[in-house]
């Protein structure tokens, strides 16, 4: 058996590559060791957003009690999880049907390299002209006594009951999103972050606002705090802590390890395939081709690229990668401004340079920043947080970065990203006629 293209991993990047290659007439196959769909559709963005939307609706109603609304809205965890399953359950079969319709051969097996051009796919040896590694990322291993007691984000999506108290290790995207969900669903929540700042790649003034409202929502956020050991105590756990406040212990019903994700290269036997990789993943050139084995390409979370480990980036890279396989290396990957969102309640959103980055780059910029809770849009949402910081170049008026926290920030940020990609100036946004009254209409005052 020999293919023109063999794709390892049926996630977002894998689907984009396989479909494009098959459409171009290349004999293409794909394999995944787990059900088809990958992280985003099955264990990430999509199910997370369905759950958060439920919690967010509950929060909105609660904020409007006594303002024309009355009654009680509560989250039924079992029902909410069952609703989430209606999105995830159909994914593997639908995806496989889509591959078959596109003429792609489908395998369900772990794949590893036998040599530079041959793969072990389950029990079979399969050769391929081009091999595409799009195996994503997995949770970083927790290294401490009792680490096995901690669950990961994958397991969190299968929780049938919500414990009374949950401890998240790590103060990043996943812990903040899950913590906001769990707190609204009735759990007490603690976040243990070993560094001085949570969400450290975001604009810190906006993070401060998010930390404030998180604490107001009952989330206990401990910074500069190290978890040293997890001990089981009957059906509960005790987490030993060490930090600024000294040593202590925390009784909890569940420990979730959300300390980051690492490229998933574990089962691939990359050495046999002569595929060089490092801590950040498979080393690739500007065509997303392995720097050591020209038959091999990589994209998405597993590839060591400039792109953030996010779904739109995985798909974007997948399209470049496929074009380079189909037409020969012709499209160098280049990245537009990438908006990113932490789906908390309310959300934190960012695109472009933070102020720290702009300073480090030596850019000459002005800052527009405000607490906008008293604006009409803040008031009608009864927003516990609504703030922004926009950086504008002093030399040409272009937008260097935009950072928001507040209602629908996840939508508004796309307007800034689009404006930046289009090379629009702050004055273009100021003079644009946004429909009113919408959240987007505030952009003209932010720019
Ligand atoms: C909880 C959570 C929430 C997230 N939320 C967001 C969000 O809101 N927005 C956003 O943009 N991003 C989000 N992300 C990140 C996003 O999910 C990833 O960036 C994206 O899924 C990466 O796509 P990929 O195709 O590179 O890898 P994946 O989607 O992970 O696909 C890789 C596939 O390869 C398979 N595989 C691995 N090894 C092998 C092997 N040896 N043989 C065969 N198959 C193999 C895996 O089983 C998997 O199906 C989230 C991630 C998590 C964990
Ligand atoms: N909304 C989204 O787009 C979204 C949501 C979830 C995940 N993701 C993607 O998945 C990736 C992984 O998410 P994540 O939340 O696991 O990681 P993260 O990198 O966002 O955050 C991990 C945090 O854990 C801390 N940490 C590391 N080791 C620790 C330890 N031993 N004890 C305490 N704290 C520790 C780090 O300092 C960091 O703040 C993200 O970087 C992102 O690319 C995106």
From TrEMBL:
Q: Which PANTHER family match?
A: GLUTATHIONE REDUCTASE (NADPH), MERCURIC REDUCTASE
Q: Does the keyword Oxidoreductase apply?
A: no
Q: Which residues form the FAD/NAD(P)-binding domain?
A: 3-318
Stretches assigned to coiled coil: none
Whether Flavoprotein counts among this entry's keywords is yes
Q: Name the source's superkingdom.
A: Bacteria
Which GO terms label this protein's molecular function in UniProt? Answer: nucleotide binding; oxidoreductase activity
Q: What is this protein called?
A: NAD(P)/FAD-dependent oxidoreductase
Binding of FAD occurs at 49, 301
Q: Which organism is it from?
A: Pontibacter mangrovi
| Pfam families membership | Pyr_redox_2, Pyr_redox_dim
Q: Which residues bind NAD(+)?
A: 170-177, 193, 260
Q: Which UniProt keywords apply?
A: FAD, Flavoprotein, NAD, Nucleotide-binding
Q: Which InterPro entries does this chain map to?
A: FAD/NAD-bd_sf, FAD/NAD-binding_dom, FAD/NAD-linked_Rdtase_dimer_sf, Pyr_nuc-diS_OxRdtase, Pyr_nucl-diS_OxRdtase_dimer
Q: Residue limits of the Pyridine nucleotide-disulphide oxidoreductase dimerisation domain?
A: 338-443
Details of cofactor binding: Binds 1 FAD per subunit.
The UniProt family comment states:
Belongs to the class-I pyridine nucleotide-disulfide oxidoreductase family.
Q: Which cysteine pairs make disulfide bonds?
A: 40-45
Q: Which cofactor does it need?
A: FAD
